[in-house]
């Protein structure tokens, strides 16, 4: 199929962009043929204490496995994101903050950010935090979240940000896995007029795992209980420290942060990113993909608890001397015009969000958008899941008034930053396609056996060579890192995504091919939801699959077998949903619970998820090969019970 729904690069964009078509093609060749020289040159965009001479030191082979970039270089991430901008931009806004209610806003200039970060860094030091220590951050979308991350980077501590929507159990698991000494939290967050009990959640988590110190930032000034000797009010400690703190020189391969993400099996993995390669990648991609210039107002709507927030709310824009907008609220509060009102209020120039948010806003019709000006906008972006062409066209025509390019950016927590995306000055757009790999990103489509597929085709997406922003390991479990990403197709990184390549060579990501579901652009492992369900005393067994959902992209569909004698009531159904929310967090709440007298299994006892997916999708007439089922009657019962 040739997709000719093309939106060509405009002459103005080709003329003004950092990278036009010729430059893109030349960079692709240079990155492939002379990678050392190419990346050494590009990496000069960072401020190095010791510039690297060893550029790329990588092998994906089992016996010789290593991923190292700029390995003899030294730098500090916080210096690059803050200090180096002070001579020219001390009074430029670094962070603009928009609160939950429209009358709440504020922010920090670069000189203020510097002072705040130094103070926080000195408080952390006074509490005994040292280079290499882990610090858990559980905060709302307020400037203090960026300050906390940068303060860790300044002194060489490794941060682990936990999304404010995760439950106490999820916090506890993450604290335990990385051995955090300290947690930074706030009294409460605010979202859509509701209070989020952050400190209370931390207290509940700390009933299961211990930390030495909890640092509490006052945000709503709620009265929260403080445990003596463990909990400290940041506002008080901050008074007693200097606003000057030197930056710790870090090796390029020293860890910068751990961020937990769901996989197809087991507990969430601690994805480790390091100092030099990660910062380079987010800075370079932020400039190229968004065609960014210092001082432009950039709004990425992601929470800092996800990688998108790390890379394109905090590190990318600040490394590029940007003005980054942090929004604590939600798109439909107090009205469904809020997003566009915020764009007008802060004169946002580049807006980056998830397709799920666009679909939800699209439902409200065009009027809430048209009631606003949006004249400041010059580029739009999407991330997190495939965008359906209908939502793409709405974004283009209604939000962008057919004048703004849209960059559909494909990447993952593991990749650190964008890998596949149009460049606004170089790439013709196609609704629904992430189009082309960035220079240095070598994609392949392979079949299930690893055979390389050429031309226009579909297959599993793999990457045959490293890029600087690649994750380095799974915290505490290098074997799991290798097994998860490098064992399916030896010598190649397996993304977990399926993908189509069209006649023009453009890529169309079709979604996960493993047991991961993408709910509203957030990754959820089916195994995690199943583990939560079977913890419920009435549940004997559970199997979870994704199904197409109009707004969320994918919803969570849970097949549940109850213990003998337990009655399947509506009250129990509600209780199971509540239980999963409490175990993991609201994002994991099942959309459908299907009472299953039994689950379809092979004779060796393996659950046949393929069949469960078909039934969840409503494709009960096309279940495929069922000949290996131990008991075909189980499937008939499930089909009959679909309601
Ligand atoms: C998975 C990664 C990238 C940061 C946010 C999510 C899906 C991401 C796109 C896109 C189609 C996309 C993939 C990927 N995904 N961006 N533009 N088009 N699919 O990060 O939680 O690590 O999830 O999100 O399936 O593997 P994540």
UniProtKB/TrEMBL annotation:
Its cofactor is Mg(2+). The lineage of its organism: Bacteria, Pseudomonadati, Pseudomonadota, Alphaproteobacteria, Caulobacterales. The modification N6-acetyllysine is found at residue 606. GO terms for molecular function: acetate-CoA ligase activity; AMP binding; ATP binding; metal ion binding. Belongs to the ATP-dependent AMP-binding enzyme family. Residues 24-81 form the Acetyl-coenzyme A synthetase N-terminal domain. HAMAP family: Ac_CoA_synth. InterPro entries: Ac_CoA_lig, ACAS_N, AMP-bd_C, AMP-bd_C_sf, AMP-binding_CS, AMP-dep_synth/lig_dom, ANL_N_sf. This is Acetyl-coenzyme A synthetase. The keyword ATP-binding applies. Mg(2+) binds at residues 534, 536, 539. Acetylated. Deacetylation by the SIR2-homolog deacetylase activates the enzyme. Its EC number is 6.2.1.1. Keywords: Acetylation, ATP-binding, Ligase, Magnesium, Metal-binding, Nucleotide-binding. One of its GO terms (biological process) is acetyl-CoA biosynthetic process from acetate. Residues 88-465 form the AMP-dependent synthetase/ligase domain. The keyword Isomerase does not apply. Catalyzes the conversion of acetate into acetyl-CoA (AcCoA), an essential intermediate at the junction of anabolic and catabolic pathways. AcsA undergoes a two-step reaction. In the first half reaction, AcsA combines acetate with ATP to form acetyl-adenylate (AcAMP) intermediate. In the second half reaction, it can then transfer the acetyl group from AcAMP to the sulfhydryl group of CoA, forming the product AcCoA. It comes from the Bacteria. GO terms for cellular component: cytosol. Gene3D superfamilies: 3.30.300.30, N-terminal domain of ligase-like (3.40.50.12780).
């Amino acid at each position: 199929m040739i997709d000719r729904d093309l939106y060509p690069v405009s002459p103005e964009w080709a003329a003004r962009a950092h990278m036009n078509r010729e430059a893109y093609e030349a960079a692709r060749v240079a990155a492939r043929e002379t990678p050392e020289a190419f990346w050494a040159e590009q990496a000069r965009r960072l401020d190095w204490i010791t510039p690297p001479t060893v550029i790329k030191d990588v092998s994906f082979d089992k016996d010789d496995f290593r991923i190292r970039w700029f390995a003899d270089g030294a730098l500090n991430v916080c210096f690059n994101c803050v200090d180096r901008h002070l001579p020219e931009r001390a009074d430029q806004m670094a962070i603009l903050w928009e609160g939950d209610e429209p009358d709440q806003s504020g922010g920090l200039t670069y000189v203020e950010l510097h002072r705040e970060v130094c103070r926080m860094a000195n408080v952390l030091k006074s509490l005994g935090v040292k280079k290499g220590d882990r610090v858990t951050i559980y905060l709302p979308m307020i400037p203090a979240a960026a300050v906390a991350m940068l303060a860790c980077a300044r002194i060489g501590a490794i941060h682990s940000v936990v999304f404010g929507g995760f439950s106490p159990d999820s916090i506890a698991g993450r604290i335990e896995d990385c051995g955090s000494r300290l947690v930074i939290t706030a009294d409460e967050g605010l979202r859509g007029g509701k209070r989020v009990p952050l400190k209370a959640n931390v207290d509940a988590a700390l009933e299961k795992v211990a930390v030495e110190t909890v640092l509490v930032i006052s945000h709503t000034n709620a009265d929260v209980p403080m445990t003596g000797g463990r909990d400290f009010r940041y506002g008080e400690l901050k008074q007693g420290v200097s606003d000057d703190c030197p930056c710790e020189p870090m090796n390029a391969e020293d860890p910068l942060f751990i961020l937990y993400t769901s996989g197809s099996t087991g507990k969430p993995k601690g994805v480790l990113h390091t100092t030099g390669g990660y910062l380079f990648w987010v800075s370079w991609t932020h400039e190229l993909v968004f065609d960014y210039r210092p001082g432009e107002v950039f709004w990425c709507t992601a929470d800092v608890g996800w990688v998108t927030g790390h890379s394109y709310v905090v590190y990318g824009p600040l490394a590029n001397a940007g003005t980054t907008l942090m929004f604590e609220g939600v798109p439909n509060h107090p009205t469904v015009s809020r997003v566009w009102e915020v764009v007008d209020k802060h004169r946002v120039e580049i807006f980056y969000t998830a397709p799920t948010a666009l679909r939800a806003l699209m439902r409200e019709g065009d009027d809430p958008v048209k009631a606003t000006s949006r004249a400041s906008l010059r580029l739009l972006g999407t991330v997190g899941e495939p965008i359906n062409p209908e939502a793409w066209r709405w974004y283009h025509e209604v939000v962008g008034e057919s004048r703004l390019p849209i960059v559909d950016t494909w990447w993952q927590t593991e990749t650190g930053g964008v890998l596949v995306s149009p460049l606004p000055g170089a790439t013709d757009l196609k609704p629904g396609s992430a189009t082309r790999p960035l220079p240095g990103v070598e994609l392949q489509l392979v079949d299930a056996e690893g055979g390389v597929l050429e031309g226009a085709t579909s297959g599993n997406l793999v990457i045959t060579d490293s890029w600087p922003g690649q994750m380095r390991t799974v915290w505490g479990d290098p074997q799991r890192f290798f097994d998860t990403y490098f064992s399916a197709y030896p010598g190649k990184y397996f993304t977990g995504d399926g993908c189509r390549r069209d006649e023009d060579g453009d890529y169309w990501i079709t979604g996960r091919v493993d047991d991961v579901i993408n709910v509203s652009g957030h990754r959820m492992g089916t195994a995690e939801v199943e583990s939560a369900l079977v913890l419920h005393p009435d549940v004997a067994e559970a199997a979870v699959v994704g199904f197409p959902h109009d707004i969320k992209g994918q919803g969570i569909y849970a097949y549940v077998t109850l213990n003998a004698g337990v009655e399947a009531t509506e009250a129990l159904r509600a209780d199971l949903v509540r239980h999963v929310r409490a175990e993991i967090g609201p994002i994991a709440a099942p959309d459908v619970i299907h009472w299953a007298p039994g689950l379809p299994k092979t004779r060796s006892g393996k659950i046949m998820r393929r069949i469960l997916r078909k039934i969840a999708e409503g494709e009960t007439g096309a279940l495929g090969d069922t000949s290996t089922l131990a008991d075909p009657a189980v499937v008939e019962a499930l089909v009959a019970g679909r309601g």
